[in-house]
Design goal:
Elements (H helix, E strand, L loop, with lengths): L1 E6 L16 E4 L2 E4 L5 E3 L2 E5 L3 E2 L4 E5 L9 E2 L3 E17 L14 E5 L9 E4 L3 E3 L4 E19 L12 E2 L2 E2 L12 E2 L8 E5 L5 E6 L8 E2 L2 E2 L3 E9 L4 E9 L3
Parallel strand pairs: 15-22
Antiparallel strand pairs: 1-7, 2-3, 3-6, 4-5, 5-9, 7-9, 8-13, 9-13, 10-11, 10-13, 12-13, 14-16, 17-18, 17-21, 19-20, 21-22
Amino acid sequence: MKKQITSVFIGFLLSVNADVQAQLKVGSEGVFVLEGTVFHTEGLTMVPYSDWRMNNFSLTKHNNTVIWPKYNSIQRMYRFSRPATFQGELAINYENLELNGNEAKNLLLAYSKTTSNNFKDFLLVKESVVNDEERSIGQLFTNNIMLSDLTAVSSDIPGIAPYTDLIANNMITPNGDGVNDTWIVKNIHLYPNNELKIYDREGRLVYETFGYNNTWGGLFNGNPLPEDTYYYVLFLDSGKGKKTGFISIVRE
């Protein structure tokens, strides 16, 4: 289901009070929302920091979600018919029934530069500001962003323990046969902001890296480590979470 909000190609219809309506200007290059005035429609509020051209595209509201591997989308999306450049304040007013199991305090804005239902095309606004009283989530964009789709997501997925999609091998056999030569953490690519530390039995650090990508082959400073069991700590989401366990090195 989708709801047509406005088509600037044929004109505006704003349903807010006169004191917060967008001030429009018609020039040789088209229709503009004047800087510093409020454009508001169907729960979306935008305050441009410079005259914002809104010619020849439409904006629609959808009640569908975006499927993420480790985030949970609310049941609302705004979609421009073509990408729009925007600088200024932007906010979504959500309804409780649209939260889709999320806690409002954990919401983050997510937007894509192109029309897409693929989470990989969305950028997260980690500094998003939630106003519980007004049931809104927003942010000030001091630099231009390219905006096509807009929604909000949360890492608080109901009923799912965090990081269960990460499955780590507990043994490697680095003998050069191409099988199990490196330590593999399934789905680690979904958590690029990770930090890995591996220790030996005496607690000495034998390996450390940021952005681990399944390449460790049991080496310390370029030299093979002896057969033994090692302890790892994998920090995730810039230190917000972690996964720990053991790795055994077996050399045939």
